[in-house]
Design brief:
The complex is a heterodimer. Chain A has seven helices and no strands. The longest helix of chain A has about 40 residues. Helices cover about 35% and strands about 30% of the residues of chain B. In chain B, strand 6 and strand 7 form a beta hairpin. The chains are: A mainly alpha, B alpha+beta.
Chain lengths: ~170, ~325
C-alpha cells in the first residue's frame, strides 16, 4: 500500500463520521449517507492533487457537497419516475376494486358478462389480437408476426376493439 | 413504434385507451414513457380515465379467457411466432450450432438465448419493460426471459441473468417465474430472481411474499420468502430457510450500484465481470483474498482505479477484451 493512499485512508477515516452526518442532514437516510461518504472517498482517490492540496478538509467537503447536490438531483428525477409508477400502480390497481361490496361485485359480474358476449360477437380478427395481447402477453411485434400484419395494424386493432368494448360496458 | 394518440376530436375515454394500448405494446421507449406521464399528470380526469381503461383491460382479459374456451380462434393464433420457439426446436438448433467451430458456438450460445427469448439484455445493459398485464420487469446485465402465458397462469422463464418483477394483480392467473431448478410463485409482489450456473439461484423479496419450490421435488411444501428476505439455492439438495436481508442492498443494481461488505477480491471481480465486456482476471493467490467493502458504480473503471490505489495493485490491459490485475 502506498503512503499516499494510506494518508488518504487515514484522513478519510477521521472525517468519515462527520461526512456521514453531513450527508444525513441533507438526505436524511443513513444508508444513503454511508453510500455517499464512500462516493466521496472514491472521488478523492481519483483526485491526483489531493495530497498536495492545502486545505484537504474543505476540499473533501466541497466534493461531498457536489455529490450531495448531484444525488438530490438524480433522486428527484428517479423519485418522480418511481412515484409515478407506484402511484399509478396504486391508483389504478385499487380504484376499480375500492368497493367490493356485494352490489359492486354484481356490477362487475354484469360487466364481465356484457364484454364476454361482445367479444363472442366481434370478428375473429379483433378477438385474435385481444387474445394474444391479454392472455398470451405477446408484444405487438410478436402478434404482428403471428398474424402476418404490421405492428401498427395490431395497435390500431387493439385500440378499436377496446373502444367498442368501452362503449358497451 | 406505435403512433401516439392525437388530442383532436377524441373523447377522454378514447385517449386513455390509446395510451393504454401504447403502454401495453411491449416496446415503449423512454421518450414515450415521459410523454405518457406528462399526459397522465396534466389533469386528474386523465388519471381517472386511464384507471377506467385499465379496469376495462382487466375485465376484457377475464372475458377473453371465457370466450376463447367457447369459441376457439384460428390455429395460427395458437402457433408461436419465431421469437417464441418451443424447446424441441431450440435443442435442434443448438445441436446444429454445436457442429460448428467452438468460437462460433460461443457466439451462437449468447445470440440464441436472446433470439429465442422475448426480452433480453446484453452484457452491461439494463432494461425496464412493461408486460401486457401491466406488470413491470427490470432486466439486469446479460439477462433473457420468455413469456409462456395462457388462461391459467402467467409463466415467465428466466433463461439466464437477473430480473426484478413488480407484479400486477390478477387473481385468476398467478404469476410464476421459472429458473432451471425452481419455480417462484408471486403473491402480489415485488421480487427478484438471479439465475446462476448449474441450477443455483438467488431470490429476494422487497414487497409482500413469494413461494419457492424445486421442480425436482414438487410434492414438497413450497418455501415462503417474505418481505426483506432472501433465499439462496446452491443447485443441489433441499431449499434452505430464507434469511433477512437489507432491501436497499439487494436492489442496488437497479440504481446502477454494486455493494460489497467485506468480500474477498475474487468475488468482487466475479461480480464486476457480469457487467463488463472486458474480462477482468486476477493473477496471484494473495490478492484474491484481500477484503473489499464499499459501494461502487456498476461501471468498472471507477472501481478498478480505486482498487489499484487502495491495494497498490496494477491493471494491465491486453487489447480491448482483457484486464489483468496483479501486484
Amino acid at each position: 500500500m502506498t503512503t499516499a493512499t494510506q494518508t488518504l485512508s487515514h484522513f478519510f477515516l477521521d472525517i468519515r463520521e462527520e461526512l456521514i452526518r453531513f450527508f444525513c442532514r441533507r438526505i436524511s437516510c443513513l444508508d444513503t449517507a454511508e453510500d455517499l461518504a464512500q462516493d466521496t472517498y472514491l472521488r478523492l482517490l481519483n483526485y491526483d492533487q489531493f495530497e498536495a492540496a492545502e486545505n484537504r478538509r474543505s476540499l473533501a467537503f466541497a466534493v461531498a457537497s457536489n455529490i450531495a447536490i448531484d444525488h438530490v438531483r438524480k433522486q428527484k428525477v428517479r423519485a418522480r419516475y418511481i412515484a409515478d409508477q407506484h402511484e399509478l400502480q396504486n391508483d389504478l390497481e385499487f380504484m376499480p376494486h375500492q368497493n367490493t361490496s356485494f352490489e359492486h361485485k354484481e356490477i362487475i359480474e354484469e360487466e364481465l358478462a356484457h364484454i364476454h358476449q361482445a367479444l363472442l360477437a366481434l370478428p375473429e380478427d379483433n378477438r385474435s389480437v385481444i387474445y394474444l395481447s391479454t392472455i398470451k402477453g405477446l408484444t405487438y411485434a410478436q402478434i404482428g408476426k403471428c398474424l402476418g400484419i404490421t405492428e401498427r395494424m395490431v395497435a390500431k386493432r387493439v385500440a378499436s376493439t377496446l373502444k367498442i368494448l368501452a362503449d358497451i360496458s | 413504434m406505435v403512433s401516439k394518440p392525437e388530442d383532436t376530436g377524441q373523447s377522454l375515454t378514447e385517449q386513455a385507451i390509446d395510451w393504454l394500448v401504447i403502454m401495453r405494446s411491449g416496446s415503449v421507449d423512454a421518450g414515450t414513457q415521459r410523454e405518457f406521464e406528462h399526459w397522465l399528470r396534466a389533469d386528474s380526469t386523465h388519471t381517472e380515465a386511464y384507471a377506467k381503461a385499465q379496469a376495462l383491460w382487466e375485465v376484457t382479459t377475464k372475458a377473453m379467457a371465457l370466450a376463447s374456451a367457447e369459441k376457439p380462434l384460428k390455429p395460427a393464433v395458437y402457433a408461436k411466432p419465431l421469437a417464441l420457439f418451443s424447446k424441441p426446436y431450440r435443442i435442434a438448433w443448438l445441436a446444429t450450432a454445436a457442429t460448428l467451430t467452438f468460437g462460433l458456438w460461443m457466439a451462437w450460445a449468447s445470440v440464441s438465448v436472446s433470439l429465442f427469448s422475448d426480452y433480453s439484455t446484453t452484457v452491461g445493459q439494463q432494461k425496464q419493460v412493461t408486460l401486457a398485464d401491466g406488470s413491470r420487469v427490470f432486466l439486469n446485465t446479460k439477462t433473457a426471459i420468455s413469456l409462456q402465458w395462457d388462461e391459467h397462469q402467467r409463466r415467465i422463464i428466466l433463461h439466464n441473468g437477473q430480473a426484478a418483477f413488480t407484479v400486477a394483480k390478477d387473481v385468476n392467473r398467478p404469476f410464476v417465474v421459472e429458473t432451471k431448478a425452481a419455480s417462484v410463485r408471486a403473491l402480489g409482489t415485488v421480487f427478484e430472481v438471479f439465475e446462476q450456473d448449474a441450477g443455483a439461484f438467488d431470490v429476494a423479496v422487497t414487497e409482500h411474499a413469494i413461494d419457492v419450490s424445486l421442480k425436482a421435488n414438487n410434492h414438497a411444501n413450497p418455501v415462503r420468502v417474505g418481505e426483506a428476505e432472501m433465499l439462496h439455492y446452491s443447485g443441489t439438495g433441499e431449499l434452505q430457510h430464507p434469511e433477512l436481508t437489507n432491501p436497499s442492498q439487494i436492489t442496488a443494481w437497479q440504481r446502477g450500484k454494486v455493494i460489497f461488505k467485506d468480500q474477498p477480491l475474487d468475488k468482487v471481480i466475479a461480480e464486476l465481470n457480469r457487467y463488463s465486456k472486458t474480462w477482468i482476471v486476477l493473477k496471484g493467490n494473495d490478492i484474491k483474498q484481500r477484503r473489499v467493502s464499499g459501494v461502487f458504480p456498476i461501471d468498472n473503471s471507477t472501481i478498478l482505479t480505486a482498487l489499484e490505489k487502495v491495494f497498490a495493485i496494477h491493471a494491465t490491459r491486453v487489447g480491448p477484451w482483457l484486464i489483468i490485475l496483479h501486484t
